[in-house]
Design brief:
heterodimer; A: alpha/beta; Transcription Regulator spoIIAA; six-stranded mixed beta sheet; 31% strand; B: alpha+beta; Heat Shock Protein 90; 5 strands; 29% strand
């Protein structure tokens, strides 16, 4: 499990490779907060290479979204597979995040 | 036919992924539906293990967590045992979908266990045990 962060234009794109769970959520949080600290404001998390997410992984996404919004920015999500869509629907987090089917579509919406 | 196994891991969240992998693999051998082996089982088991490690055992760094797995063609039973004092599942359970809870960072773990498993029981047996039952849903 790891995270790849790269810039596409003015958008910071984070690829979550493997699981987003209690053991690695802090790493994701810190890496995104570092980018926010540097002045980045537009963030996209791409889940095309993600296995499963637990409640602490969901919690980190909620927390980051809040912090980014407080700084006038935005966090969007893309490429949730059917299992991840179910997870977001069960917890109603699909109502909190802007979720796109593809990375390209998400990048266009910023 | 059924497969039964017992695992014991140090109280460290770094072991969770490996345990989940082992259990999901056992269920895949019985050809459980893909959504159960890739969503219900991994997420519910991760939640039970992280509760056992972070809340049940807490600061007891030398403590262990035991996992008992019993899987048949029709159902999976998982028991997660920690060395803590236990907790009242119903009292701790909250609805993260409530508007006041939606933006909270925590409070989704027990809820997800109830949503992703068919039955959750908590009892004491020389430690604190959470037993989760999942029926095969094709």
């Amino acid at each position: 499990m790891s995270f790849a962060i790269k810039k596409q234009g003015e958008i910071v794109v984070v690829d979550v490779e493997g699981q987003l769970i209690v053991g690695n959520r802090q790493e994701l949080k810190q890496r995104v907060l570092d980018e926010l600290e540097k002045g980045e404001r537009k963030f996209l998390v791409d889940f095309s290479q993600t296995g499963y997410i637990d409640s602490s992984g969901l919690g980190v996404l909620v927390s980051l979204s809040k912090k980014i919004r407080e700084q006038g920015g935005e966090l969007r999500l893309a490429n949730l597979n059917d299992d991840l869509k179910t997870l977001f629907e069960l917890t109603k987090l699909d109502t909190l995040f802007q979720i796109s089917d593809t990375r390209e579509r998400a990048l266009e919406t910023f | 036919m059924h497969i039964a196994l017992e695992l014991e891991i140090p109280s460290d969240v770094r072991y969770i992924e490996r345990v989940v992998e082992i259990v999901a693999k056992q269920c895949a051998q019985f050809s459980y539906p893909q959504h159960q082996t890739s969503l219900n089982i991994p997420v519910a088991l991760s939640e039970a293990l992280s509760n056992a490690i972070l809340r049940g055992n807490g600061d007891r760094t030398n403590a262990y967590v035991q996992v008992k797995v019993d899987v048949t063609q029709d159902r999976l039973i998982l028991e997660v045992l920690d060395e803590g004092l236990g907790f009242n599942f119903e009292e701790c359970l909250q609805d993260p979908r409530e508007p006041d809870n939606l933006e909270r960072e925590d409070g989704r773990g027990l809820f997800l266990m109830t949503q992703l498993m068919d039955r959750i029981e908590r009892f004491s047996n020389q430690g604190n045990v959470v037993r989760m039952t999942l029926k095969r849903h094709d």
